[in-house]
């Protein structure tokens, strides 16, 4: 059942119930009022008959112009209950009196007694009253009127109320149906637009609404906001799927090359007759190098997978100066040349994951050492910018072409100068992902032939005073500077 039909039925039902209650109350009030009026009229006519001249049970005299003849019927009874006299308009009909009413009037328990009886010509209202003489009841006077006209009027009123209620309810139903349709028309347009958007997956489309800022306007606003969020989420999913497909393709390519090399070397070792010992040692060294490369690649892929799965860093206060010295010492053990100069002029404590930040610094130092000549310079310094602090790695290496600079943090991306090395193209992508996981920022500036500067910034926890920090210069090994 549609909302339109439910609203229309609700409106019509409420109106019908209201009209029915109103009609019943009106009918009851009119019936009660007119009946009371008839009762009072009969009582007054009975009193007028008793007060005219000398009243006798055997002779009925009605005051001229005061008793409605022939609408009023008059009858008298003696104390035995026998009819003594009756008005001519009764035509021999005896007005009934119940035994209870007769006893109450005879014994003086009631001054008057009202009864309604049904006859062939309709209902009859009878008012009976005791006739008192010398303080004692001597008979009973009965005055009656037909209620046929009243019943007919009430029947007519009842018909009008029933017909009026039915007509009003039916009219209200159709009017309510039209009004509900007009009110729900914007919602129907919203539904149609949403259905079209869902079928076409066109989340850039919006629901148009030019009406007032009412509940429907709020619904349209909310729906458009939801479409904006869906569009952003859909684009993110599309980008993630594209990146995932590219990642799988690149990973497959990177793994296929060392595997092909390993297979070729193993086939060479299986040749008959066996190769000379010197060639066998060279092939084994090549196999070892390829295995190391595969191990590094798999390790880096696992790191990226952890980040993509929602890596939760263990954030804690980390002193940059000490971490910088540890990272430089470790990097120089792997690549002694060129020497790295560590400068800690303004030390600070940042909120970061110590192990992840060390891994980021090792990646940046490895790149700087890899692409800087042995007679070049690599310098690592601490930096403080407002409410952030971090480490900058500067080198005098080959630099980065401005055309490829925006892509260096993409996975498996390697510029021309990097293709001649043994890198996998994942180092900077890992560094960027780890820094962002720690709510930080990594940026780069570079000039070809001059060098590059990578800066890592993290939330500042505290800045150390100058008295606690002295400039540190850390050569790779003693005597090499």
UniProtKB/TrEMBL annotation:
InterPro entries: HAMP_dom, HATPase_C_sf, HATPase_dom, His_kinase_dom, HisK_dim/P_dom, HisK_dim/P_sf, Sig_transdc_His_kin-like_C, TCS_sensor_his_kinase
EC number(s) stated in the UniProt entry for this protein: 2.7.13.3
Compartments reported by the entry: Membrane
Cellular component aspect of the GO annotation: plasma membrane
Top-level taxon of origin: Bacteria
Iron-sulfur found in the keyword field: no
Keywords, ordered alphabetically: Kinase, Membrane, Phosphoprotein, Transferase, Transmembrane, Transmembrane helix, Two-component regulatory system
Catalytic activity: ATP + protein L-histidine = ADP + protein N-phospho-L-histidine
Transmembrane segments: 7-30, 160-180
GO MF, any single term: phosphorelay sensor kinase activity
PANTHER family: SENSOR HISTIDINE KINASE TRCS (PTHR45436:SF5), SENSOR HISTIDINE KINASE YKOH (PTHR45436)
Protein name: histidine kinase
């Amino acid at each position: 059942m549609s909302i339109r039909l439910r609203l229309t039925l609700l409106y019509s039902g409420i109106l019908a119930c209201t009209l029915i209650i109103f009609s019943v109350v009106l009918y009851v009030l009119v019936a009660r009022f007119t009946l009371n009026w008839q009762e009072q009229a009969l009582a007054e006519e009975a009193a007028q008959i008793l007060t005219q001249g000398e009243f006798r049970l055997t002779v009925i005299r009605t005051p001229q112009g005061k008793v409605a003849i022939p609408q009023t019927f008059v009858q008298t009874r003696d104390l035995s209950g026998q009819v003594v006299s009756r008005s001519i308009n009764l035509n021999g009909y005896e007005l009934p009196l119940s035994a209870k009413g007769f006893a109450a009037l005879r014994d003086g328990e009631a001054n008057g007694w009202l009864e309604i009886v049904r006859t062939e010509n309709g209902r009859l209202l009878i008012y009976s009253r005791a006739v008192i003489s010398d303080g004692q009841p001597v008979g009973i006077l009965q005055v009656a009127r037909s209620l046929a006209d009243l019943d007919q009027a009430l029947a007519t009123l009842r018909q009008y109320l029933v017909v009026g209620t039915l007509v009003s309810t039916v009219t209200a139903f159709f009017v309510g149906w039209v009004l509900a349709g007009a009110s729900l028309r914007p919602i129907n347009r919203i539904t149609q637009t949403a259905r079209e958007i869902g079928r076409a997956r066109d989340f850039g489309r919006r629901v148009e609404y030019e009406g007032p800022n009412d509940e429907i306007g709020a619904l349209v606003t909310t729906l458009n906001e939801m479409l904006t969020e869906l569009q952003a989420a859909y684009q993110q999913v599309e980008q993630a799927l594209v990146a995932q497909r590219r990642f799988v393709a690149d990973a497959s390519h990177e793994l296929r090359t060392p595997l092909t090399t390993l297979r070729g070397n193993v086939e060479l070792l299986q040749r008959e007759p066996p190769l000379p010992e010197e060639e066998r040692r060279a092939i084994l060294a090549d196999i070892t190098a390829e295995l190391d490369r595969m191990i590094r690649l798999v390790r880096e892929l696992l790191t990226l997978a952890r980040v993509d799965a929602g890596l939760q860093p263990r954030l804690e206060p980390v002193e940059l100066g000490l971490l910088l010295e540890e990272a430089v010492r470790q990097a120089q053990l792997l690549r002694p040349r060129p020497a790295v100069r560590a400068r800690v002029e303004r030390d600070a404590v940042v909120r970061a994951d110590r192990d992840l930040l060390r891994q980021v610094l090792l990646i940046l130092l490895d790149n700087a050492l890899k692409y800087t000549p042995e007679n070049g310079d690599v310098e690592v310094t601490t930096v403080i910018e407002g409410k952030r602090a971090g480490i900058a790695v500067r080198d005098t290496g080959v630099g980065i072409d401005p055309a490829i600079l925006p892509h260096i943090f993409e996975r498996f991306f390697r510029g021309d100068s990097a293709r001649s090395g043994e890198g996998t193209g994942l180092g900077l992508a890992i560094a960027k992902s780890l820094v962002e996981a720690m709510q930080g920022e990594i940026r780069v500036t570079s000039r070809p032939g001059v060098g590059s500067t990578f800066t890592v910034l993290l939330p500042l926890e505290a800045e150390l005073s100058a008295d606690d920090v002295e400039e540190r210069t850390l050569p790779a090994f003693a005597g090499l500077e």
